[in-house]
Amino acid sequence: MKFATSPRIRITTREYMTKQEIENTYRQATKCIDDAEIKDAFALISSLVNETGRASLTDELERLNMSYTFMLKYLEQGVMDPQRDDILFNIRQSLYQLNDQCYIGLMEPASPEVFYARRRELANISLVSIVEEYREELKNLSLAQSVPEQQRDSHAILSRLHQVEELETKLFNRVWSTFPMSTDDTSTIKLCISGDILPVHTRCLLVAALFLGLMKFYDENKLLLLLETYTLSDEPQVQLRALICAMLALLSHKKRANVSRSIQSRIEALHEMAEFKQDVWGIQLQLARSRNTENIKKRVRNDLIPNIMKVRPDIVDKLKDKDSQIIDLSGIEANPEWQQWLDDSGITRKIEEFNAMQLEGSDVFIATFSHLKTFPFFKTLSNWFLPFYPAHSAVVENLGAGKLNLAEVVQHAPYLCNSDKYSFCLSLGALPESQRSMMSAQLEEQDAALNEARHAELPDDRRRRVSIINAFVQDLYRFFKLFSRRREFIAVMDNVALDMTDCLPLVQVTRDAHVLELLGTLYFKNAFYDDAIKCFTRLESMEEMTDEHIYQKIGFAFQNAGDYTNALTYFKRYELLHEDDAWNTRHIAACHRALGHREETLDYYRRAEALSPNNVSLTLTIGHVLLEQNETKLALQQYFKADLMENANHRAWRPIAWCSFLLSDYDRALDYYDRISRDDEPTAQDLLNRGHVLLCQGKTQEAITTYRQSLRLMDGDCKKFRAAFKGDAVELRLHGVTSVDQALIPDAVCSNPNNN
Questions:
Q1: CA separation, residue 428 to residues 320, 398, 400, 414 (Å)
Q2: What does the alpha-carbon distance between residue 415 and residue 410 come to, in Å, rounded to a whole number?
Q3: Which residue has the higher pLDDT, 278 or 298?
Q4: Residue 174 · residue 125 · CB < 8 Å
Q5: How many C-beta atoms lie closer than 10 Å to residue 359's C-beta?
Q6: I need a surface site. Which of 8, 283, 353, 717 has the fewest CB within 10 A?
Q7: How many whole angstroms from its chain centre is CA 249?
Q8: What residues form DSSP beta bridges with 327?
Q9: Is the pLDDT of residue 323 over 50?
């Protein structure tokens, strides 16, 4: 079936383009403009213009084609034109927009996407009329609420509140679905956002609407308006949201925004603002943290929560609320009698890690709240970007107009983003009053503790701005990950290169030495080694960089990324400055080992041992290196040395036992495997190795019994056991075990695994 693309009646008999043909042509035209293949771009866009049948688009295409033709003619004639670059730039920008307009015009009549649905719905409604109607309803609501409490009609007020919120949604939809943004609409939005004629939360929605439109199609007027909002607004919520949205839009539309003189000029003007650099750095760091959100989500869901649920049953019973069965974690810390047990179990450490991540701005609650985005509230697109405020109808209806004390506590909770605050309040709607009171008390307590901790770190104003940035980035992350129709938008939060240091209009700020150091450390901590290397190498090249430890950081990042050659380069640069650094020497040895450099590996490990003579791990590592090089006797000496150096851990017992086996000292090997069984927790590998010793001693029956014990620790997986047994085939053959016996023994072990 053909995809209907235009409501007009055709005179010719040529068929309509299919949806796939339209999309392919649109993408090809965009690429041609990106690559400055202008003639090809004209041909492709011409087919789209013809498909729309719109005279205005045809006229615009002819105008651009004429300008380009004259430019080529003057070039051919050798005419010097100092404005040629500007003319070409303007032609390309106009072609981009014309291409977008054609695509939208062809898709709009029949596409089910929400963008086109809103355009069809609001096509004949002006932005000014919606603003005027909205302001009128705000006045009516204010009048209704100003009546003395005993005379108020709560149902009428709630009805008016719904009308106001419906108009907010309508205003949001009208702005984000508008393309391209006209001069009149731009002026109207600027007046609404920069002044105080609309509530703060509505101004925030307008900012989000501009951004959402940019996540469909690039519109320079929208991007400029976001940047201008940062300058004009005196409300931090509006200002910072605008800057975050502008930065993400710059990242999403690099090829078009990077070459825009208007964008560059506007950003240069922002450098004069006192908070600009600090705000950009704060946004950079939070965007970098957001890339680790899925890992944090897994840690909380798979590690923290399961371990807390393993708390001793008698303690759990004391922590459960009699009605809700909710565990009150604050009660854990309240009883000092449990502290030792909590420390020993590791739960204290995990809670401390959780609190530390929370304080540094990591998104620790997404695992908890992601399943609470199915409320009808979140089916409305604009609600994903709505700042939390207690007077919203969803909050009032779920908590009751007289129960807003809890909503006010939630409003000031610094560790929940706006989206999660709404989720929290919506989920409380069905709970009894006793549970609400309990949660309110817990929130107030945690709120006070977190505010005290943050107050010690940052001044009040800076702390507030960082909190706004962190919360809104988390709101955006939830939208792009959880909204049911998220795939209809540019997935900017999925971008593996979510790194503002590559955003050309902002590099003067984003590549500051201070923020590169913070970003590099953050990326390295979260195992984004390529990004860490990029930040650290940029930092290294700066004239003001005098800290030679940067060589170690770059080397360590390369080492963890598996690039041992480059890692060696940087570790050796540091070695030239600090030859006696044991840590650096050890890592040089590790890189040589990974690259198979036998002599250099042992040489550097010996140097490291001389610098750290009491390091048991290093002594063991040298033993491993010697064993890899088939120097079994020397390796055994290292292991004995390591065993004498430590009293409790017995890390050398296993390699001593294996080396003894390799050297045919079966009695000593068996003695050490017996020590492991007696004083440690034997693994499947330990029992397999013990079986090898018994087999080589001719004690076949005992060997098979021990092999069966190893099999049981492998959960009875015979395939796994056979693979492990065959892995030692060379060693067994060298010790006299025939290939026939090696073939039969796994069958004997697996034929009756439970027989001792």
A1: 18, 7, 11, 19
A2: 10
A3: 278
A4: yes
A5: 16
A6: 8
A7: 17
A8: 320
A9: no
Per 3-state DSSP, the chain is made up of helix, strand and coil in percentages (nearest 5) of 75, 0, 25
* Residue 385: closest CA among 162, 178, 213: 213
Q: Tokens at residue 413, please?
A: 């909770």
Answer whether 452's CB lies under 8 Å from 421's CB: no
For residues 711 and 753, the answer to whether their CB atoms sit within 8 Å is: yes
Q: Is the pLDDT of residue 474 over 80?
A: yes
Q: Tell me which of 225-239, 389-403, 697-711 is least confident.
A: 389-403
Rounded Cα distance, 147 and 13, in Å: 68
Residues whose CB is less than 8 angstroms from the CB of residue 82 and which lie 6 or more positions away in sequence, other chains included: none
Distance CA 556, CA 564 (A): 9
Span 396-415, average pLDDT: 73
Token duo for residue 217? 């199609």
Q: What is the CA radius of gyration of the chain?
A: 34
Q: What b/e readout covers 4-33, taking b as 16+ CB neighbours within 10 angstroms?
A: ebbeeeeeeeeeebebebbeebbebbbebb
Structure tokens at 137: 């309803």
Joined tokens for residue 383? 């609600």
H or E segment at 284?
A: helix 276-290
Instruction: Say whether 327 sits in a helix, a strand or coil.
Output: strand
Q: What is the 3-state secondary structure (H, E, C) of 358-394?
A: HHCCCCCCHHHHHHHCCCHHHHCHHHHHCCCCCCCHH
Q: Rounded to an integer, what distance in angstroms lies between the CA atom of residue 174 and that of residue 158?
A: 24
Q: What average pLDDT is seen over the chain?
A: 87
- Tell me if 284 sits within 8 A of 507, measured CB to CB: no
Grouping H, G, I as helix, E, B as strand and the rest as coil, residue 416 is coil
On whether the CB atoms of residues 522 and 557 are closer than 8 A, the answer is no
Omega of the bond leading into 199 within 30 degrees of 0 (cis): no
Instruction: Give one word for 626, left, alpha or beta, with left for phi > 0 and alpha for psi -120 to 50.
Output: alpha
Q: Contact 525/296 with Cβ under 8 angstroms?
A: no
Inter-helix orientation angle 513-525/549-560, to 10°: 30
Structure tokens at 612: 């750290």
End-to-end CA separation in angstroms for the chain: 71
Query: Where do we find the tokens 């979260």?
Result: 526
651: DSSP letter: T
Q: What angle do CA 310, 311, 313 make, to 5 degrees?
A: 100
Helices (H) and strands (E) in the chain, counts: 42, 0
Beta bridge partners of 320: 327
CA angle 209, 214, 217 (to 5 degrees): 130
Continuous H helices in 360-510: 366-369, 393-399, 404-411, 418-427, 433-457, 460-482, 507-510
User: What are phi and psi for residue 469, nearest 5 degrees?
Assistant: -60, -50
pLDDT band at 151 (very low <50, low <70, confident <90, very high): confident
Q: How many CB atoms lie within 10 A of CB 63?
A: 12
> Which has the higher per-residue pLDDT, 412 or 606?
606
707/466 Cα distance (integer angstroms): 60
Tokens at residue 422, please? 């709404």
Q: Longest Cα pair distance anywhere in the chain, in angstroms?
A: 101
Residue 87, judged by CB atoms within 10 A of its CB (0-12, 13-18, 19+), counts as: middle
d(Cα 573, Cα 551) in Å, to the nearest integer?
Answer: 7
Q: How many residues does the chain have?
A: 756
